[in-house]
């Protein structure tokens, strides 16, 4: 539940300076997708739950309330997390570090560790995997929130919640 709140409230906020261009670009690219879901999983290899915590299709978002129900909201398209990230990057208030390449669910990816001031007391450092094939975020972990993380899903695999 805390990881879910961290994603909704904090996202990837707080990263800045070196190598953050790729992170900002990946997050912006993700927000341009017509279909996006974020699934809270207990380990990187866990099968997806089929009940993502956040679903965005076109201009609508569904957020899992934690009670088995989704709340549906219009999506403005604006993302305050990306705005905050850009602002922090301009100020040099935090740090992004490329930490090598890897694979997540069979996708080659570049990994970034984000140290930041926004939300860091709750989440600690964030590690973000960005797909080499399409430049989209595919997985993220929060240092202080324990095992597991958030799987990002795109395209036809994303369905409207029921």
Could you write a compact summary of the structure shown?
The chain has 162 residues and is of the alpha+beta class. The protein is built from four helices and nine strands; from the N terminus they run ααββββαββαβββ.
- What portion of residues belong to β-strands? 35-45%
CATH topology: outer membrane lipoprotein receptor (LolB), chain A
General shape: globular
Instruction: Please outline the major beta sheet.
Output: 9 strands, antiparallel
* Total domain count: 1
Q: Give the overall pLDDT as a whole number.
A: 82
Provide the spatial order of strands within the biggest beta sheet. 4-3-2-1-9-8-7-6-5
Which percent range fits the helix content?
A: 10-25%
Low-confidence stretches: 1-17
Order of helices and strands: HHEEEEHEEHEEE
Which structural class do you get from the secondary structure elements? Answer: alpha+beta
CATH level-two architecture: Clam
Put simply, the count of helices is: 4
Give the quaternary arrangement of the chains: single chain
- Please give the alpha-carbon distance between the first and last residues: 20 Å
Question: What is the class in the CATH system?
Answer: Mainly Beta
Q: Care to count the β-strands? A: 9
Radius of gyration: 15 Å
């Amino acid at each position: 539940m805390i990881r879910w709140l961290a994603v909704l409230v904090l996202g990837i906020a707080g990263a800045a300076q070196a190598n953050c261009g790729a992170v900002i670009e990946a997050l912006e690219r993700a927000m341009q997708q017509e279909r996006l879901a974020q699934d809270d999983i207990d380990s990187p290899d866990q099968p997806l739950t089929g009940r993502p915590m956040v679903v965005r299709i076109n201009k609508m978002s569904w957020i899992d309330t934690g009670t088995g129900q989704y709340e549906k909201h219009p999506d403005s398209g604006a993302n305050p997390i990306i705005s905050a990230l850009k602002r922090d990057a301009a100020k040099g208030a935090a740090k992004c570090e490329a930490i090598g390449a890897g694979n997540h669910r069979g996708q080659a990816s570049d990994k970034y560790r984000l140290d930041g001031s926004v939300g860091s007391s709750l989440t600690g450092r964030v590690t973000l995997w960005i797909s080499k094939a399409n430049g989209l975020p595919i997985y993220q972990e929060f240092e202080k929130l324990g095992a597991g993380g958030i799987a990002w899903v795109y395209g036809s695999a994303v369905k409207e919640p029921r």
